[in-house]
Amino acid sequence: MTQAPATSTNPAKADSQPAPTKPSKEMMLKWLYDMQLIREFENRTQQAYQQAKIGGFCHIYSGQEACAVGTIACTNDDDPVVTAYRDHGHALARGMSAEACMAEMFGKVTGCAKGKGGSMHMFDKPNWLFGGHGIVSAQTPMGAGFAFASKYELEVLGTGKKKIALCYLGDGALDQGAFHEAQNLASLWDLPVIYILENNGYSMGTAINRHTANSENLEDRAKGYGIKSITIDGLDILHAYSELKPFFDDCRDKQRPGFVNFKTYRYQGHSMSDPQKYRTKDEVDQFKDQDSIAKLCSDLMGMGHIDEAGWKSMQKEIRNTVLDAVEAAENAAVPEPGELYTDVYANPEKNLSPTATYTHGTKNPLM
Amino acid sequence: MTTMPMIETDIHPAVDNPALPVFLSEDQLPSREGDRIVQFREALREAMSEEMRKDKRVFLLGEEVAQYNGAYKISQGMLDEFGPKRIIDTPISENGFAGMAIAAAMTGLRPIVEFMSWSFSFVAADPILNNAPKMLYMSGGQFGCPIVFRGNDGAGGQLASTHSWCVEALYANVPGLKMAIPSNPYDAKGLLKTAINDPDPVFFMESERMLGDKAHVPEEEYYIPFGRARLAREGDAVTLVSFGRPVNFCLEAAETLAAEGIEVDVLDMRTIRPLDIESIIERVKVTNKVLVVDQSWPFASIASEVITQICERCFDWLDMAPARLNTEDVPTPYAKGLEYDYLPNPERIVDAVRDMLN
Ligand SMILES: Cc1ncc(C[n+]2csc(CCOP(=O)(O)OP(=O)(O)O)c2C)c(N)n1
Ligand SMILES: [Mg+2]
Hints:
heterodimer, A: alpha/beta, Rossmann fold, 2 domains, two-stranded antiparallel ribbon, 12 helices, 8 strands, about 40% helix, B: alpha/beta, seven-stranded mixed β-sheet, five-stranded mixed β-sheet, about 15% strand, binds thiamine diphosphate, binds magnesium ion
C-alpha cells in the first residue's frame, strides 16, 4: 500500500465502465417506499420536536431523500456507511427501523444508541452504519478508515471481500482540512471510499458560492487528488442510479476512491431553529415543484409499476409505520440513571475515575 | 443481511470478559534483574513486534515508521519483518490518519498510531478526543475503539515550546480513554503489550530523553496490568509520587537525600487512568507526607488530581499539606540552562523534600 500504485496517477473517470444495471420493478418500488418513509418520518420528527419530545440539534432530511436512497441502492448490505449529523435518512435507507431511530431522538432505551447519541449520532451495527457524526467533516477521514479496514481484511487477514465504503458530507464539510487529508490518503493508498457530497447549496446560512472557492467546478478538487468524480442531478433518482451504479461498481472493482457531487436541496431550515433569512420562499418552492418523490412516483406510474390506488395504500402503510414508531418511542422507558456509567469503557477496570464506577452496558434488543 | 463483526473478535461491552492477557501480580512477574540489557526504544519495539506476530489485526502507522525505520528508531526493522501493509508510512496528516485509524479500530482492527511527538497530536485533537474515547458511549455500546496512540511526550532537548508538550493533564480529563506513562524499559514493554490488547483507546506516552535508557528486559513474555503503581524505592520520610521521566529524577533525588540520612519512597504510578490511588494511600499512611512530582504544568495537572484524591481518601493521615512539584508555569524555553530549571529536576526535588522536612 505504501508503494505508489499505478492507478494513483490516473485522474478522473474510468474509461471502461460496466453496463448500467437496470433496476427491477421491486427495487424501484422499494426506493419509492424508502423515500416516502423518510419524508413521513421527518414530518413526524418536526412535529415531535415542536412538542418538545425531541431535544438538542435536529436536522431534517426532507428534500434530499433521493441521495441516501439512490446511493445506498448501489451498495451491498455489508458495505460500511458513515455520515454527518443530518443522518435520519441514511439510517432509514440503510435499514434501521423507524422505531429505533425515533426512540433515539426521544432519548429512550430502545433507541439505536440507547438514548446516548440523539438525532446527530445514529449508529447501527447490524446494518453497517458507523454513525452519525456531529463535527463537520470528522467523518471524512473515518470514511477512508472503513475502506482501509476492508482492504486490510482482504489483503492481510485473507478474509472479507472487495467492498466500498460510503462517506457522506455536506457542502460545508468541503472547507475542512480533514476532508483534504482524507482525499489525499484515500487516493495515495487506493482506498475504496466514495465521498458523496450532499450538495444542498448551503452550509447553514452560507450559500455555497460564499463559503467555498470555485464552487461551480467541485469535481476539479477530486481530480486534483487523482480521484474519479461525477456530478449528479439529485432530483431524479432513476437517472442518478443509472449513473451511480456503474460508478460505484468501478470503484469497487478497481478498489479506488470516488467523489460524487450530488446536487440536492433541503426543504426545511438547517436545523429546527433556523428562521431562513438567507433564502427566499420562491427558491424553496421552485425546488419543491421538482420534488424527487413526486418525480419517481409519476415515472413509476408511467411505467405501469404503480397506480394511484397503490400509491395511496403505500402512503397509508408508511404513515402507520411511522405513527407506530412515534407511539413506541413515546411509550418506551427512559434510561435508568445507572445507564450513565455504562458503555464508557469496554474494559471498565477500577480506578478509571475518582467519582464514577463504570460497568458494562447491556445490548440494545432492537439492534 | 451480513452481520458484524467484520473481523472476528468482536468485543461487545455486554460481554464481561474481553480476551485480555493473563496478568500476574508484581511478585510473579519475571525479574527486573538480569543481563539482557536493552534500550527503552527496543523494549517498545519488542512489545509491538510480539503482539504483531501473534495478532494480524495489529498494525503500526505514523510518519517515518517504515522506510526511515522510525524517526527515533523505535520501529527499526519492523518494515522488513511485517511488510508495508502493516508498517505504514503516513503523510503528515495527523488529523487524517488518526481519524482513519479510529474507523479501522471500530471494525475490530487494532491500530497503533505513532505520533512523532504528542506535541503534534493537537492537529488531530478532534478524532482522538471527540471520536476515539466517546465512540462506545455515543453508539450505545455498539462500536468500541481498541486503538493505541503513542509517541514522545514532554521536553526533548532544547526543542522549545511548540515541541515540548506534556499532554497528559489535558487529555486525562476525558472519560473513555486510558493513559499509560512508563518510566523505564521494563515497564514500557509490559505496559505497551497490555495497551495493545486493551479494548479501549489507550494514550501511551514516551519520552525522547528516555529512549536510549537501558535496563534488563526479560526474554519471557509478560504483561503489566493497568492501574497498579510500583514502589520503586521504599523510605519513611516522605512519599514521592510520580510517573514517566520524572520518576528517574525522583530516584536520583532519593540517592542524594539518602546520603543526608533521609529515606524517601518513590512510587511510580505507571498509569494515569486508571489511577492506583490505593497504593498511594498505603504509602501515605506510612510516611504521612506526600510530594507529587509531575512533568506537566501545575494548574489542573495530574498532581492536582492525585492530591485531591489523597485529600478525599486519607486526609487524616497527613502530617502536612500535600505538596506538588511541577514543571515551571511558563512555556518551555529553549536555552539549555533555562530548560533544565523549568523541569522538575533532581535538585528541585531535593529542595522540595528538605522544605517539607524543615
Ligand atoms: C467543526 C464544526 N464547526 C461548526 C459546526 C456547526 N455546524 C453544524 S452544521 C453546520 C453547517 C454545515 O453545512 P453542510 O456541511 O453543508 O451540511 P448540511 O447541513 O447542509 O447538511 C455548521 C456550521 C460543527 N458541527 N462542526
Ligand atoms: Mg449543505
